[in-house]
Amino acid sequence: MNGLTMLWDNAALFATGLQNTLLLFCVSAVCAFGLACGIAFLLEGRQNLPRRLLRGLLDLMRMLPFLIFLYLLYYGLPNAGVRLDVWTAGFIALITYHGAYFAEILRAARIALPAGQAEAAWAHGFINATMYWRILLPQMVMRSGPLFGNQLVCVLKDTAFLSIITLMDLTAAASAVQAKYFVPLPPFILVIALYWSITLIVEALLQRLARRAQKRGLVHE
Questions:
Q1: Structural domain contains residue 36
Q2: Locate the ABC transmembrane type-1 domain: which residues (predicted)?
Q3: What whole-number distance in Å separates Cα of residue 18 and Cα of residue 192?
Q4: Is-contact 61 97, C-beta < 8 A?
Q5: CB 23 within 8 A of CB 87
Q6: Three-state helix/strand/coil letters over the chain
Q7: CA–CA distance, 34 with 29 (Å, rounded to integer)
Q8: Are 34 and 95 in contact (CB under 8 A)?
């Protein structure tokens, strides 16, 4: 059986893997970004205890390899009486882990903003929450486009680790075909092409966002 015939015969399996990968990537990326925005806002607070706890969470996620974190959630929690299905464990792992990295990106962008913006907002009567969500956060996001792009690619690549806990994503589909036919090259070349295509789409969307930000004067070339 040639490679193309093998891939065509297993098209439904690859389609399921692609659908699951896109679902994991899109939901996890959006939720991780939302989590990061909330964390970055809480880091603006003046109470030391919440800020230290959040900093500890961020440092922990940056210290742990993603695969170990996933193992702890899926295989470790049952020892404490908590059992998660593969989807729940996958989403929690991706959202928590990459939410921490997104938060670090936002924190760095916040430090780079001129202090005078916050002072001007306070002078005009803005409370901290309104100032953050309406004035600071849009600029933080727009200024961090390239870094967000890199992190989104990391989210996409880390979805492949979920195949280890038996979630049927693209990598799991390729592994299943390889195990069935003992021909590793064609299925994994197809999967590489699909991951590459998704990455190119993400980069195109971010470039469009960057052009819009430049028109609005939020970033400069």
A1: yes
A2: 18-207
A3: 12
A4: yes
A5: no
A6: CCHHHHHHHCHHHHHHHHHHHHHHHHHHHHHHHHHHHHHHHHCCCCCHHHHHHHHHHHHHHHHCCHHHHHHHHHHHHHHHCCCCCHHHHHHHHHHHHHHHHHHHHHHHHHHHCCHHHHHHHHHCCCCHHHHHHHHHHHHHHHHCHHHHHHHHHHHHHHHHHHHHHCCCCHHHHHHHHHHHHCCCHHHHHHHHHHHHHHHHHHHHHHHHHHHHHHHCCCCCC
A7: 9
A8: no
Of 27-36, 92-101, 127-136, 209-218, the poorest mean pLDDT is in: 209-218
Please report whether residue 219 resides in a domain: no
Is residue 221 situated within a structural domain? Answer: no
Q: What's the CATH number where 173 sits? A: 1.10.3720.10
The verdict on residue 8 lying in a domain is yes
- The residue range of the domain holding 87 is 1-214
The total number of structural domains that make up the chain: 1
pLDDT at residue number 105: 95
User: pLDDT tens digits for 148-164?
Assistant: 999 999 999 999 999 99
Measured distance CA(96)–CA(35) in Å, rounded: 8
Torsion of CA 144, 145, 147, 150, to 10 degrees: 160
